[in-house]
Design a protein that fits this description.
With 370 residues, this protein is α/β, with parallel strands linked by helices. Helices cover 43% and strands 14% of the residues. It has helices at 34-46, 62-71, 93-104, 119-126, 130-140, 154-161, 175-180, 183-193, 213-222, 228-237, 252-263, 270-284, 307-320, 345-349, 356-369, and strands at residues 3-5, 11-13, 15-18, 51-53, 80-85, 109-117, 143-150, 168-172, 197-200, 242-247. The strands form 2 sheets. It has an 8-stranded parallel barrel, surrounded by 6 helices. The chain starts with a strand and ends with a helix.
Length: 370
């Protein structure tokens, strides 16, 4: 496992375990398959991963409980835990922080973040008193390092950086968003401020691990044995300001592949970079909505729609034809895209600010054509 020095003599594994997509029982997101998930943690620990990321809302709050229990058998100084304050779910930061410590049965959180800052609530969150409160927790030792995760504009990022002496910032960073989003601009802002970047969505929620056949062909021709995910991970690791790359691993095969990737120091060549950019361009031409499947939208949908699932089908229909939607006919009427009432609660919580009601309406029209 490769490590990179953070500060205060701390060395963090380049690979971090994200506890947002743990294996679950019977498709119930809040019912974690403890045995299967514990195997992933044990394998990560055995291979030298020492950075574990959870949040108040992951798996309906069960992620924190699971992670605390799974790590309890290991010496507390052998790993670092990351947790987050979710302002939209529970604005009472005192209550939320106490709940998190109890859920994990821990007396401190090593890396603590304000969760998923977006433009439309950034000012309200940052002026709520939470920064001052968490700074006191940092001084008392209950928080070791304080930062925030970010899904907003460059302007809002610059404003947030001026408000506190942040230890780190977490951003969505991958080669697709670098070329076709604002990832490059956000990264360069952090680099100029000399703030370590923790990376989420390095494979864009699985998009870059499941490229279209034409896009994948470009990378497979160069390295037939290398997984598509490993290309994405190596690309992120090549950026100097990146500290830890998080991967929401949900099965042992993903752990094994990531361990191989992060145990090597294989620098991307100039030709490799050209291939990646070409693959991104091909992928761009075939993806309609680059949803990462973060599921921030689903708890707020008054109709209980599985929005990431429906967007996935929307993309498949855009790429391969509406006939691919035929299986949706088996869904109950209340779970179809036509059930969307256009309230925009999903859009308000979407890190990418996708116009989800618009896509639901289009998808409903596609289904009518079948």
């Amino acid at each position: 496992m490769q490590y990179k020095e953070f500060k205060d003599g701390i060395k963090l594994s380049r690979l971090g375990m994200g506890a947002m997509r743990l294996p679950v029982q019977e498709g119930n997101d809040s019912c974690i398959d403890y045995d299967a998930a514990k195997k992933l943690i044990d394998k990560c620990m055995a291979q030298g991963v020492n950075y574990y990321d959870t949040a108040y809302i992951y798996h309906g709050g069960k992620s924190e409980e699971f992670l605390g229990k799974a790590l309890a058998e290991y010496p507390r100084d052998s790993y670092y835990v990351t947790d987050k304050f979710n302002f939209q779910t529970e604005p009472d930061y005192r209550k939320q922080f106490d709940t998190q410590l109890k859920r994990m049965n821990m007396d401190r959180i090593d890396f603590y973040l304000l969760h998923g800052i977006q433009d439309h609530f950034a000012d309200e969150m940052l002026k709520s008193g939470c920064v001052e409160f968490f700074d006191e927790k940092k001084k008392s030792g209950q928080i070791r390092y304080l930062g925030f995760s970010f899904h907003g504009s460059a302007e809002t990022l610059k404003k947030a950086l001026k408000l506190y002496d942040w230890d780190f910032v977490q951003i969505q960073l991958n080669y697709y968003d670098w070329y076709y989003g604002d990832a490059k601009e956000l990264y360069e802002i952090l680099k100029e401020a000399d703030i370590p970047a923790m990376v989420m969505e390095p494979v864009h929620g699985g998009l870059l691990a499941n490229l279209t056949e034409e896009a994948a062909k470009e990378l497979k021709a160069a390295e037939p044995e290398a997984s598509l995910a490993s290309w994405a991970m190596r690309w992120v690791m090549s950026l100097d300001q990146v500290q830890v790359v998080l991967s929401g691993m949900s099965e042992e095969g993903q752990v094994d592949d990531n361990i191989r990737t992060f145990s090597e120091n294989r620098i991307l060549s100039e030709d490799d970079q050209k291939l990646i950019r070409k693959a991104a361009k091909i992928q761009r031409e075939s993806v309609a909505v680059a949803c990462t499947g973060c599921r921030y939208c689903t708890p707020n949908c008054p109709k209980g729609l599985d929005i990431p699932f429906l967007l996935k089908n929307y993309n498949e229909a855009k790429i391969g034809g509406t006939w691919r939607l035929s299986h949706l006919k088996a869904l109950p009427e209340e779970k179809l895209p036509s059930a969307c009432i256009g309230c925009k609660a999903c859009t308000d919580h979407c890190p990418q600010s996708f116009l989800i009601p618009k896509y639901m309406k289009e998808l409903a029209e596609m289904l009518k054509e079948l």
